[in-house]
């Protein structure tokens, strides 16, 4: 039995049309699951940026000190301090982790 894949809802109407076509092509055996996963990746929503105030608010809402928050994110205390002071902005995996914690809570990364 073949598991049906749920279509994502991309923000772009063009990407939505492409993804819907890919889902139908997969359902009819024209493209394989691996190719469909590639189309799925196109439809991921971009990770939002976080301001220094938002990072501080997230950390304090979790009742974590800067050192503990840095440990959770696997980064240095000086990096967290720089984010909260607005000297630096998180990017890459750190930004993805912040977003995951923001959406799903601390347990998602522990």
Automatic annotation (TrEMBL):
Keyword DNA-binding applies: yes
Assigned keywords, A-Z: DNA-binding, Transcription, Transcription regulation
Presence of the UniProt keyword Transcription in the record: yes
One Pfam family matching this protein: HTH_3
HTH cro/C1-type domain residues: 55-98
Name of the protein: Transcriptional regulator
Organism (species): Stenotrophomonas rhizophila
Gene Ontology MF terms: DNA binding
Gene3D superfamilies: lambda repressor-like DNA-binding domains
Top-level lineage group: Bacteria
